[in-house]
Design a protein that fits this description.
The protein is about 30% helix and about 10% strand. It contains 7 helices and 6 strands.
C-alpha cells in the first residue's frame, strides 16, 4: 500500500472543498487507504462529526472512533460519552495515560502542578494527551479531527486536509471551514447529543482543572489554560511537533517555577436550549 504524502493531502483538500459533509466523509473513506482514526474530545464539533460518520455508515468499521481519557475530564464529558455510545450503537475506544508517567508527575509536581509553569503544563499534556495520541494513531493512514479555522488564531489556517510528516499520515479536518453557528445549527437540527457544559458558557471543553467558562466577547478557546498567555495555548496535539513537550515561545516566564529537569514526561456559548 502506498503511504500518503503531501501531494495526496493537497489534492484531496481541493476536492473536499466543494462537497457537503457527507460527501467529504465518503470521499475521505474512498481515497485514504488503510486505517482511518477519528479522535473525539466529545466537544460539539466532534459530536457533529460523530453523528455524520454514523449517518454515513462509517462509524462502525471503516473509521475508528477513539478518545483520549486523560483522567481529569469533567463528569459531564463522561456522561456525553455514555449517551453518544447509546445513541449510535458504537463503542468509543479509550486511550489513557501511562500509569508510571502519571504517578511520577503527581509525585514530583503535585496533583495540580501543571499550573506552576507552561513547561509543567506541557509535560502534563504530554503524558495525558500526546503520548496516548501516538498510540491511537500508530499505523494509521488518516487522522480525522473536528478542528475549525474559527476556533482560535492558532488554528486560523486549518485546511480541510494536510500532510502530517511527523506521523506520516493525512490529517483530515472536514469541519475546517464551518462556523460555530453552522456547528450549533447542525447539532440542534439533528438532535445530536452534546455536553451540557456548552450551555453553561464552555465553548471549548478539555480537562476540568484546565477549563473555565468564557467571558462575553472572549475567543472560543479563552477558557483553556486561562492563566497562560494566549499565544501559548495548545496542548501539543495539533502543533505539528508531537515529540516536543514545550513548543517555541512556550518556555516558562521569569516568574514561573521551571519544570524539574530530571524528568521525562514528554514521551459558545451555544444556545441549543432556545
Amino acid at each position: 500500500m502506498t503511504r500518503p504524502d503531501r501531494q495526496t493531502a493537497e489534492a484531496l483538500a481541493e476536492r473536499l472543498s466543494g462537497l457537503d459533509l457527507p460527501g467529504r466523509l465518503h470521499l475521505i473513506a474512498a481515497e485514504i487507504p488503510g486505517r482511518l482514526v477519528f479522535t473525539t474530545s466529545l466537544g460539539v464539533e466532534d459530536q457533529a462529526l460523530t453523528h455524520a460518520l454514523a449517518m454515513a455508515g462509517l462509524a462502525k468499521g471503516r473509521v475508528e472512533i477513539v478518545t483520549l481519557d486523560t483522567g481529569r475530564l469533567f463528569a459531564e464529558t463522561y456522561d456525553t460519552w455514555t449517551e453518544t455510545e447509546a445513541a449510535y450503537g458504537i463503542r468509543i475506544a479509550a486511550y489513557a495515560p501511562e500509569r508510571a508517567a502519571a504517578e511520577a508527575f503527581v509525585r514530583d509536581e503535585g496533583i495540580n502542578g501543571f499550573r506552576r509553569s507552561v513547561a509543567a503544563r506541557q509535560a502534563c499534556c504530554g503524558f495525558r494527551k500526546v503520548e496516548p495520541l501516538g498510540r491511537a494513531l500508530e499505523g494509521a493512514s488518516g487522522w480525522l479531527t473536528g478542528l475549525r479555522a474559527g476556533q482560535s488564531a492558532n488554528r486560523a489556517e486549518t485546511p480541510l486536509a494536510e500532510f502530517d510528516p511527523a506521523r506520516g499520515l493525512v490529517k483530515l479536518n472536514p469541519l475546517a471551514d464551518w462556523s460555530r453557528a453552522q456547528v450549533d445549527s447542525f447539532v440542534r437540527e439533528n438532535f445530536v447529543p452534546y455536553n451540557v457544559l456548552h450551555d453553561r458558557g464552555f465553548p471549548s471543553i478539555g480537562c476540568a482543572p484546565c477549563t473555565r467558562a468564557v467571558k462575553l466577547g472572549e475567543p472560543e478557546r479563552a477558557g483553556r489554560w486561562w492563566w497562560e498567555q494566549e499565544e501559548k495555548k495548545e496542548c501539543g496535539l495539533h502543533v505539528g511537533r508531537p515529540e516536543a513537550s514545550v513548543q517555541p515561545g512556550q518556555e516558562a516566564a521569569v516568574f514561573e517555577t521551571p519544570l524539574k529537569t530530571n524528568q521525562d514526561h514528554s514521551a459558545r456559548q451555544p444556545e441549543f436550549a432556545r
